[in-house]
Design a protein that fits this description.
Blueprint (H helix, E strand, L loop, with lengths): L1 E3 H5 L10 H9 L4 E6 L9 E13 L5 E8 L19 E6 L9 E5 L4 E2 L3 E2 L3 E3 L2 E3 L2 E2 L2 H4 L24 H4 L6 E5 L10 H11 L7 H8 L11 E3 L11 E10 L9 H9 L7 H13 L4 E4 L7 E5 L5 E3 L5 E3 L5 E5 L2 E5 L3 E2 L12 E8 L1 H10 L5 H6 L8 H16 L2 E2 L4 E4 L9 E4 L2 H6 L5 H10 L3 E5 L7 E5 L10 H12 L19 H15 L3 E2 L5 E2 L1 H7 L23 E2 L4 H13 L5 E8 L21 H9 L6 E8 L16 H15 L4 E4 L5 E10 L5 E8 L1 H6 L7 E6 H7 L15 E10 L4 H12 L3 E10 L8 E10 L8 H19 L2 E2 L2
Parallel strand pairs: 13-16, 28-31
Antiparallel strand pairs: 1-12, 2-12, 3-4, 3-6, 4-5, 6-11, 7-8, 9-10, 14-22, 14-23, 14-24, 15-22, 16-19, 17-18, 19-20, 20-21, 25-27, 26-27, 29-30, 31-32, 32-36, 33-34, 34-35, 35-36, 37-39, 37-40, 38-39
Helix pairs in contact: 6-11, 7-8, 8-11, 15-19, 22-23
Pfam families: B3_4 (PF03483), B5 (PF03484), FDX-ACB (PF03147), tRNA_synthFbeta (PF17759)
GO molecular function: ATP binding; magnesium ion binding; phenylalanine-tRNA ligase activity; tRNA binding
Subunit structure: Tetramer of two alpha and two beta subunits.
């Protein structure tokens, strides 16, 4: 919330010489975080004065452009020029070349004299142009930084001003004002108004606050349901039983001048508050919203038909909103309608058909109170955040609608020349929401905060923020109250909230600093321990951990989420993605890892080994829920079950990507490129860390090289992942380094296969017997399958077997290969004889011959 200081001073005891920084320092003491200072004079400096055009001589030049050679008086006639400097004429009349044509002789304009600086560090100096020396500039609103109009200069009489020649134009236009921007948290929606900020400033400086909203309410005419424009509240489908609109005030102002200019003081305040000045009716609506915190809407009365009805949308209805976009409405949307159909989305944005225009003579003012949940859902559903919805969804005071409408009517009468109707239409649906009383015991704030507060101090502070207190019974010697919060504090619903208010207003600086004692706990779960061990192992092996966004494209999910090409992988579609391309939740870690590798490689990092452990998102049979639970309500079992059923499965995965060299070249040491063997090693490193026996086999995956892909399974045959070199086409299309390799494993599946305990084996003191064997087998037989068969055939005496050579060549039969293996035998209780080791080896070879047709080579 941007708070212009001149505006705040009208309602709060802000010293005249206080700066925005000092106001921010004060607001911090009552819990509002400071954001920024907005000061126009940081970008614009004088001399910028009021001038009067004495003459204007159009001159056409060879480039086809017509400019005006003007004489402009910047000092009242008969007075001397007190400014000095290069280009300042002592007579008080400046010669200026101007390319705009929307002014006449006698008009008063804004003149930037030599020495002035405009936004964008545009410095005004005398300069030769079009055959004249132009000593200054007649400024437009864009050049002054106070608007977007650049079609012509700012003529002061057209915005209702007739200032003295030579007057300070910066002061005239409110450019010496400044704004303090504060951060308003969602639970303190009352802070989105000058009323709320002024009240909090008064609390901070311990000064009384006079609520100016109550004054406007006293001036408002008595509510009369039968007068004013007819309104019907007909919400047939309230959310959680709460009507979408419980209060609707209408006022009518006739005979306005819609083209009347917005006065500079109002335009200046709106600009400092971050709202662009558009037209006087729109500016008045925004001004009252910022001042009171109550959003308003103005209708062209001539465009309304029959009566206004507030209801929910019907299936298939559409509305063209003020931004000229046609929107398809949802049955949950709350609408403002008349006989023609929808004319606005309640609390979010009005419709184009009833917009106040340059032809509007009569205006209907709407000030309503809407359900925060209804407004928040509509704003998000249509992706249509607005200043109005921001306030409604955080809670608007339900008692100030008549006061806000009265303030708007008074401004329309004063500034637009309208006439107000005597009667006010005030329609109420059901009972006006009343704040619920909260029980508070006097010792509770001290228990929560750690500072002793007397009952008298607690009463003083709670009454200061607008609460009413009624003493009630408590334990022996104890004081307690039933505290009723004020209407504008919908966030005060529990005694914790009241204790926080006491601490906030008494001063956070009085709260002692003490380090909390960590509570005892059961420590990490078995799954958490396993995941951390995996990540620590990979980091210790020299890999770099990264963290990627989980947002990917559907094409990436189709590529990495299925082994076979052409498969559509079901994915979770985001309702409001940060990018339309990256609009789905990932089903694999590899898209993000490969993007990180590509980005780092493009920045000159050539040797990369990255890993990530994270969640993927797999849609269940139900995606999402038709129920959108409201905050603060306990869900019934059916709703909770439906919400839980719509949550996608989120298993853990671990992924690794590799490119470049294992280590740089050094004297006497050649570089070794990272390859698919390293990817396989890292996969087994993860499994070994968890104590899981993982089987490897040749595999295929559309994202990997057809001949350099490994699949991994657990002992029960469950597939847990892939590793290998990426497909050359994928590498080329993704601008990845050549021979990029990757691993992805199902970490949850590996954790599930993890044994309950690891039994350490005894170290044998007996000598091992080693024998080699070379077997002729089919070229398609994976070496891993052969190793498994040999282990099974050799029995318990076989301690280890490993492949040390694979040969395919002309000296072997076509379609076969020779696999050489080293077999190590050992008995736990004795030294093996050569015959025992040979017998075990022969049994292993025999089983390999039976299963795979293996032939022992000599």
């Amino acid at each position: 919330m941007r708070v212009p200081l001149s505006w705040l001073r009208e309602y709060a005891p802000v010293p005249e010489d206080a700066t925005a920084e000092q106001v921010l320092d004060t607001m911090v003491t009552v819990g509002f975080e400071e954001e920024e200072v907005h000061r126009p004079t940081d970008e614009i400096q004088g001399p910028v004065v009021v001038g009067q055009v004495l003459s204007r001589e159009p001159e056409e030049h060879s480039n086809g452009k017509t400019v005006n050679w003007c004489q402009v008086r910047v000092v009242p006639e008969g007075q001397e020029q007190t400014l000095t400097g290069k280009g300042i004429d002592p007579t008080g009349v400046q010669g200026i070349v101007c390319g705009a044509h929307n002014f006449e002789v006698g008009d008063k304009v804004v003149v930037t004299l030599p020495g002035a600086v405009l936004p964008g560090d545009f410095r005004i100096t005398p300069r030769k142009t079009y055959g004249h020396t132009s000593a200054g500039m007649i400024a437009s609103v864009r050049e002054l930084g106070i608007g977007e109009d650049h079609d012509g200069i700012l003529v002061l009489s057209r915005i209702g001003l007739d200032p003295e020649i030579g007057a300070d134009a910066l002061e005239l236009l409110g450019l010496y004002d400044e704004a303090a921007e504060i951060n308003v948290t969602p639970d303190r929606g009352y802070g989105f108004s000058i009323r709320g900020v002024a009240r909090e400033y008064s609390h901070a400086v311990n000064q009384p606050f006079h609520d100016f909203v109550l004054d406007a309410a006293d001036r408002a005419p008595q509510a009369n349901d039968d007068a004013g424009f007819p309104v019907e509240l007909a919400d047939q489908n309230p959310i959680n039983g709460v009507p979408g609109c419980d209060r609707f005030v209408t006022r009518v102002v006739t005979g306005i001048n819609p083209e009347a200019p917005t006065p500079p003081w109002m335009a200046s305040r709106l600009r400092l508050a971050g709202i662009r000045s558009l037209s006087l009716p729109v500016d008045i609506s925004n001004y009252v919203m910022l001042e009171f915190g109550q959003p308003l809407h103005f209708y062209d009365l001539a465009t309304l038909q029959d009566k206004i009805t507030v209801r929910r949308a019907q299936a298939g209805e559409t509305l063209t909103t003020l931004d000229d976009k046609q929107r398809t409405l949802d049955p949950e949307d709350l609408l403002i309608t008349d006989a023609s159909g929808p004319i606005g989305i309640a609390g979010v944005m009005g419709g184009a058909s009833t917009e106040v225009s340059a032809q509007t003579a009569d205006v209907l003012v709407e000030a309503a109170h809407f359900d925060p949940i209804t407004i928040a859902r509509s704003a998000r559903r249509h992706r249509l955040p607005s200043e109005a919805s921001k306030r409604f969804e955080r809670g608007v005071d339900p008692t100030i609608q008549a006061a806000a409408a009265q303030r708007a009517v008074e401004l329309l009468v004063e500034l637009a020349g309208g006439s107000a109707q005597d009667a006010a239409g005030d329609v109420v649906a059901g009972q006006r929401p009343e704040p619920q009383a909260v029980r508070l015991e006097a010792d509770y704030p001290a228990q929560r905060v750690g500072v002793e507060y007397s009952p008298e101090r607690i009463e003083e502070l709670l009454i200061q923020i607008g609460c009413s207190l009624e003493s009630t019974t408590a334990g022996e010697g104890q004081t307690a109250w039933m505290v009723t919060p004020p209407s504008w504090r919908s966030d005060l619903v529990a005694q914790e909230d009241l204790a926080e208010e006491v601490a906030r207003l008494d001063g956070y600086h009085k709260i002692p600093s003490r380090l909390p004692v960590a509570p005892p706990g059961r420590g990490l779960t078995r799954q958490q321990i396993g995941r951390r061990r995996v990540m620590n192992t990979l980091a210790a092996a020299g890999l770099t951990e990264v963290l990627d966004y989980p947002f990917v494209s559907q094409a990436e999910n189709n590529l990495w989420g299925a082994a076979q090409a052409g498969t559509h992988v079901p994915s979770i579609k985001l309702f409001n993605p940060i990018s339309e391309v990256k609009g789905w939740m990932r089903v694999s870690l590899l898209p993000g890892l490969l993007e990180t590798l590509r980005r780092n490689h493009s920045r000159g990092f050539r040797d990369l080994a990255l890993f990530q452990a994270g969640l993927v998102f797999l849609p269940a049979s139900q995606v999402g829920s038709r129920h959108v639970p409201a905050g603060g309500l306990k869900l019934d079992d059916d709703v909770l079950a439906d919400v839980n059923a719509g949550i996608p499965e989120q298993p853990w995965r671990v992924g690794v990507v590799l490119a470049g060299q294992e280590a740089p070249t050094a004297p006497g040491v050649g570089a070794r490129a990272l390859g698919w063997q390293d990817a396989v090693d890292y996969a087994f490193m993860v499994a070994d860390t968890l104590g899981v026996e993982m089987q490897i086999a040749n595999g295929s995956h559309q994202g990997f090289h057809p001949g350099r892909t490994a699949t991994f399974t657990t002992a029960d045959g469950a597939l847990v992942g892939w590793a290998g070199e990426l497909h050359p086409q994928i590498v080329a299309a993704g601008n990845l380094p050549e021979r990029t390799c990757a691993v992805e494993l199902d970490l949850d599946a590996l954790l599930a296969a993890r044994p309950d305990g690891v039994q350490a084996q005894d170290l044998s003191v007996h000598t091992a017997a080693t024998q080699d064997v070379a077997l002729l087998v089919d070229a398609d037989l994976p070496a891993g399958v052969l190793v498994t068969t040999l282990r099974e055939g050799a029995g318990d005496l076989l301690e280890d077997v490993r492949v040390f050579d694979v040969y395919q060549g002309d000296r072997l039969p076509e379609g076969q290969k020779s696999v050489a293996l080293a077999m190590r035998f050992r008995a736990p209780d004795r030294t093996l004889t050569a015959d025992e080791a040979s017998a075990s080896r022969e049994a292993a070879v025999a089983l390999a011959a039976e299963r795979h047709g293996a032939v022992l080579r000599g």
